[in-house]
Amino acid sequence: MGMLHGKRILLIVAGGIAAFKSLELIRRLRERGASVRCVLTDAGARFVTPLSLQALSEDRVYSDMFSLTDESEMGHIQLSRDADLLVVAPATANILARMAGGMADDLAATVLLATDKPVLAAPAMNVRMWTHAATAANVETLKKRGVTFVGPNDGAMACNEHGPGRMSEPEEIVAAIESMLAAGRPPLERPLAGKRALVTSGPTREAIDPVRYISNHSSGKQGHAIAAALSHLGAEVTLVSGPVAVADPPGVRTVHVDSADQMLAACLGAGAIDVAVCAAAVADWKMAKPFSAKIKKKPGAQPPALALEPNPDILATLSKSGAGRPALVVGFAAETENLVANAIDKRKGKGCDWILANDVSPAAGTFGGERNTVHLISATGVEDWPTLAKDEVAGRLAARIALHLARPRSAEAAE
Ligand code: C5P
């Protein structure tokens, strides 16, 4: 049964090029068991047709505030009353401004003004419109009033510019919806309620000089998915993330860092935690002494010698943190050969409880990819998991963590 089984989503599609992604969003929501009803603005109808929305949602599409039939059969109040959650995707600069200003100048704005249901907005606009002070102020106002935001992401835009403004991917919006609806679920579905989790994710950047750095290809997808999955099960999650292109998971406190030293400080500053999952690809070495000014390239001169020293091991530090040690510490072992044997040694060496070993050989191609093949290694043995999407790995791990933390201490000792 889908995670959104029986949930009713009112999707408001405004006028932006990202509206085509809303078609995919409807499909994903319905695959998870939700019903979707659409409100399409006039500008939105320039980008997607009512017919496409109607075909995918298998419901009629609402656009006209003054249609006598709509108002008698399904007025704006009823549209909101019938929904568990309102999603504005794409949320253009224009509709955000109308929401912030309390306008009711079309059906979409009127429904948003009249609703008492939670609202999620997935902004999509040109980077300059997103960074404009007017939009920033509108977003701030809406956040204060309780509107939740997912994205926008950084990247190339349809207008040939680059930067924040791309609408989140349908999967990210679905995750945000699940997390918002999860908050209202009964305790049995939230087995990690009252537990505090810490997750590290993404790469670190170690400065060589003010403009250059040492880093790696970690995308942060797996770590971010784990933070979202733990939050979905009710945990209060702190995510400490290196520089990544993926959006902050909704409902998760995300601390952004650059270097391994900063990542360690943020982890140690997270307070008492029950479970730590170290999924970050922390750079093994940093510059012993980063250059304070940009290294000059002089014709004919030798390239500079870079003296490196080891970074702190965050996983080992958390695993060996004495009395305040989390009840469960989980690490990752990305290996290209002798995967399981190396990971078993790594678990012992780092002092963590579980290691998820994943094959990152070029053939497996999991760095930056969508899927992951992992083995769960604990003191009791090795469990092989099938190849799964990264959010499925995250869901499975979160469920295992919930099971483990629910056990009495005596069962833990026997493990
Ligand atoms: O030693 P290696 O990098 O292979 O270990 C991988 C595991 O250790 C991952 O869980 C990673 O997040 C963690 N790690 C860490 N700090 C380091 C190096 C690795 O937390 N400096």
Describe what you observe in this structure.
The protein has helices spanning 19-31, 50-57, 68-73, 76-81, 93-100, 107-114, 127-131, 133-144, 170-182, 221-232, 260-268, 314-319, 339-350, 390-406, 409-414; strands at 8-13, 35-40, 61-62, 85-91, 119-123, 148-149, 153-156, 162-166, 196-201, 206-207, 213-214, 236-241, 253-256, 275-278, 285-287, 308-310, 328-335, 354-359, 371-372, 374-378, 381-384, 388-389. By secondary structure, it is an alpha/beta fold. The chain folds into 2 domains: 8-180, Flavin prenyltransferase-like (Rossmann fold, 3-Layer(aba) Sandwich); 189-291 and 302-414, Rossmann fold (3-Layer(aba) Sandwich). Strand 17, helix 13 (339-350) and strand 18 (354-359) form a beta-alpha-beta unit. The two termini are 32 Å apart. Bound molecules: cytidine-5'-monophosphate. Cytidine-5'-monophosphate binds next to helix 12 and strand 17.
At a glance:
The protein is 34% helix and 23% strand. By secondary structure, it is an alpha/beta fold. A hairpin with a 5-residue loop joins strand 10 (206-207) and strand 11.
Q: Averaged pLDDT, please?
A: 91
Q: How many domains in all?
A: 2
CATH superfamily caption of the largest domain: CoaB-like
**Helix residue percentage:** 25-40%
Output the CATH class name of the largest domain. Alpha Beta
CATH topology of the largest domain: the name is Rossmann fold
> Biggest sheet, in brief?
8 strands, mixed
Q: What ligand species are in this complex?
A: cytidine-5'-monophosphate
Kindly provide the radius of gyration, computed on alpha-carbon positions and rounded to a whole number of angstroms.
24 Å
Instruction: Report the sheet-strand fraction.
Output: 15-25%
